[in-house]
Design a protein that fits this description.
The protein has 67 residues and is mainly alpha-helical. It has a single domain, classed as lambda repressor-like DNA-binding domains (434 Repressor (Amino-terminal Domain), Orthogonal Bundle). It is globular, with a radius of gyration of 11 Å. 16% of the residues are buried.
């Protein structure tokens, strides 16, 4: 699930690094981490790059979490 992947990413990158790379607010990052919000379209490519996966793979994870 996306929130679990994000938690793992936070073990290797700081919140500041993620926020700067993705261009989101700190509150948005927290909501993603807690599963309260799924990333919008404009965040898909930067997040996929951070995870070293394709945007399609990230979208699959997001779909699995929503459904």
């Amino acid at each position: 699930m996306f929130s679990e992947q994000l938690t793992k990413l936070l073990q290797t990158k700081s919140r500041k690094e993620i926020i700067e790379a993705v261009g989101c607010a700190q509150g948005t990052l927290s909501k993603w981490e807690n599963g309260k919000l799924v990333p919008g379209v404009k965040y898909i490519i930067p997040l996929a790059n951070l995870f070293s996966i394709t945007p399609s793979e990230l979208l699959e994870q997001l779909s699995a979490e929503e459904g």
